Amino acid sequence: MKYFVITAVGEDRPGIVEKVTELLYRLGFNLEDSSMTRLNNEFTIMLIVSTDKNISVEQLKKEFETLEKELSLLINIKEIPEEVFNQKKEIGDVYNIVVYGSDKPGIVYKVAKLLAENGINIADLKTEKSNDLYVMIIEAEFPEYINIEQFNNQLESLKSDLNVDISCEKIESIEI
Fold it and tell me: Where does 2-85 sit in CATH, by number?
C-alpha cells in the first residue's frame, strides 16, 4: 500500500472538492483522512490518501496538472512511508484550549510556544478574527506527565501577558 499527503489551495468556489476527489476516485485512491476549509477567500484541502497501485509522487503530480491549471490551484504531494503511516502514536489526555480577546500580533506564537515547551502536541488549531475580536481554538494532546495544575498556572501568566481570556478543558472520551 502507498500513502500520500495532498494539499491544495486556491480561490474559494463551488466544485473544488468535487473535482479533486473525482480525480482521486478515478485513479483508485481511498481517502484516509481529510481537512478542508475556507480561510478568508482561499479554500484549502489537506488529504491523506492510499492506493495499492505502484505510483510515484511525480506520476501523481502529472495526473493533477490539468486540474491544477483548470481551478488555479497550488497542489503539493508528499509520499508517506507505510511504516510511518502505520505508527500508532501514544497520546495522553486531549484538551480544548480556547483563547479570545483583542487581536494583536503574537497570540498564536506565544500559546504555541507554551504548549511546545511543555511537550504538548497541537492536533488541530483554528483561528478567526471578527472586527477586533480574535478567537483561537486548539485541540491539544497532553503527555501523561503533565501536571495540569502547574500548566494552568502557566496559562494564567500567559493570559495576563497577552491580556486575553484562555480556557482549558479536558475532552472526555466516550466508550462505545
Answer: 3.30.70.260
